[in-house]
Write a structure and sequence with these properties.
The chain contains 2 helices and no strands. By secondary structure, it is an all-alpha fold. The protein has a domain of 46 residues. The protein starts with 8 loop residues before the first helix and ends in a 10-residue tail after the last helix. The relative contact order is 0.05. InterPro entries: BBLN_eukaryota. This is Bublin coiled-coil protein.
Length: 83
């Protein structure tokens, strides 16, 4: 009987097992090396992102302080003094 669960799947599985024999240690080592490089690049990007985020937070706080100083010099009350 042939169908989705019939005998037609057997030759495909046998072929797939034969292909596993051709996929050796060199291929796994190459893939592992590429994954290590990707991981290293992602770590570097994460560090740069964290650094940029910290710098932007500093810039935001500096701008808030400058705005408050200008408002005080003009004799105005700060309308947005929330952190």
């Amino acid at each position: 009987m042939s169908g989705p669960n019939g005998d037609l799947g057997m030759p495909v599985e046998a072929g797939a097992e034969g292909e596993d024999d051709g996929f050796g240690e060199a291929e796994y080592a190459a893939i592992n090396s590429m994954l290590d490089q990707i991981n290293s690049c992602l770590d570097h990007l994460e560090e740069k992102n964290d650094h940029l985020h910290a710098r932007l937070q500093e810039l935001l706080e500096s701008n808030r302080q400058t705005r408050l100083e200008f408002q005080q010099q003009l004799g105005e009350t700060p309308s947005d003094a929330s952190p």
